[in-house]
């Protein structure tokens, strides 16, 4: 089976909780979207805001990894609710990659005026090239590379 690549939309506070748990889940804990993931698929998280629903705008790729196994499982949440999840091996030592410098470069942003509308569903299949471009932008710079020009250019995870 071919490896596929996915973009999941979630605010940063939620991405941090998912990353700490080593999982991915969809909004409201449903199965939609998770059923399409397979073991070794690439996954990148895009955070339009720091917090939902009205938090400060972030507009950056905030976490990246690979689906670590092929099965979904139910996890208990607060107040007795349950959500469907899949395990993710997240990349360590990453930085946030703002989307703005990549708009027009990434295949899914080629239509510069309306590219964000396709993210409203919360999940989008992306190309391998887009995944690799985002991953390269999120890698922690080596010691001999220049530091960011300002804290708004790159946010350290």
From TrEMBL:
Superkingdom of origin: Bacteria
All copies of domain EVE, residue ranges: 4-135
UniProt name for this protein: EVE domain-containing protein
Organism: Okibacterium fritillariae
A UniProt-annotated Pfam family: EVE
InterPro entries named in the record: EVE_domain (IPR002740), PUA-like_sf (IPR015947)
């Amino acid at each position: 089976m071919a490896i596929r690549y996915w973009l999941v939309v979630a605010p940063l506070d939620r991405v941090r909780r998912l990353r700490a748990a080593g999982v991915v889940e969809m909004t409201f804990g449903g199965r939609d979207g998770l059923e399409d993931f397979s073991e070794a698929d690439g996954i990148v998280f895009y955070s339009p805001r720091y917090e939902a629903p009205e938090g400060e705008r972030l507009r950056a790729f905030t976490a990246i990894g690979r689906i670590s196994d092929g099965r979904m499982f139910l996890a208990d949440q607060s107040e007795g609710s349950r959500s469907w999840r899949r395990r993710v091996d997240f990349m360590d030592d990453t930085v946030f990659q703002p989307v703005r410098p990549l708009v027009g470069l990434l295949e899914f942003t080629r239509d510069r005026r309306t590219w964000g509308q396709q993210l409203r569903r919360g999940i989008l299949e992306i190309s391998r090239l887009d995944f690799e471009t985002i991953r390269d932008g999120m890698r922690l710079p080596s010691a001999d590379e220049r530091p960011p020009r300002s804290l708004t250019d790159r946010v350290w995870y």
